[in-house]
Amino acid sequence: MERLDKFLTGAGAGTRSQVKQILKCGRVAVDGAIVKDGSAKVSPEAQTITLDGEPLGGKRRMVVMLNKPEGYVTSTDDPRDRTVMELLPEEYRHQDLKPVGRLDKATEGLLLFTNDGDLLHRLISPKKEVPKVYYAKHEGTAGTEDIRAFESGLTLRDGTVCLSAKLEPLGAGESLITVCEGKYHQVRRMMASRNMTVLYLERRQEAGLALGDLPRGQIRELTAEEIQNLEKVAQ
Ligand code: URA
What beta strand segments (E) does 139-229 contain? Predict the structure, then answer.
């Protein structure tokens, strides 16, 4: 929480004396209600502060990366299971962050969160073809026929047709899979359609971002430059 007048000067609304005048004239509203008292405490992250009806500063756009451990469901609320929201430290819990897409309860690895709804929808839209790279341990060993089948667009056991994807065998029972869409249990179902049941799954990259050395269960905020790059990928 900070003083409204201090926030207004910091947001470029004017000098201290100009801000006093602006407030006196009733040109500033907090969550729709006119506030004239400069000493009123506001929370710019959580509230909408307007000058002449135009939002000032507003909520800071935030994108956060989590290295998800297994055992957490990707949901904002669940009656039975622990959710990924519980892995966000306290100071991030009131930022209106939502998970970008979904990882299964058993899947580990890179999961993004953002409070920018527009960016979120573009990142998960199959039309934007945002690449996601998964590491899988699985039954059997991927071969040339499997690589070709992934490339030409697999048909899953229930008849669902997938976009072209990349399968890179790493050795017996281990592969990297790159997909540009996010259907329910997609990688597990793609591998199952080629008789390679997935035993372990980790997302290692999304939209050009990699987990790097982020420890399991930990989060980090993306830099402004990384967010710019995300914007380009999801344009
Ligand atoms: N594909 C899956 O099958 N599961 C995930 O969690 C992510 C992609």
Answer: 166-171, 174-179, 198-206, 209-210, 219-221
**Amino acid letter at 89?**
P
User: Are the C-beta atoms of 28 and 50 separated by less than 8 Å?
Assistant: yes
As separate numbers, helices (DSSP H) first and strands (DSSP E) second, the chain gives 6, 15
128-149 pLDDT, tens digit per residue, is 999 999 999 999 999 999 999 9
Q: How far apart are CA 88 and CA 100, in angstroms?
A: 14
| Pocket of ligand 1, beta carbon within 6 A | 103-104, 107, 185-188, 201
pLDDT tens column, 24-80? 999 999 989 999 999 999 988 778 889 898 888 656 788 999 999 999 999 999 999
d(CA 154, CA 222): 34
Which of 52, 81, 104, 158 is an active site residue? Answer: 104
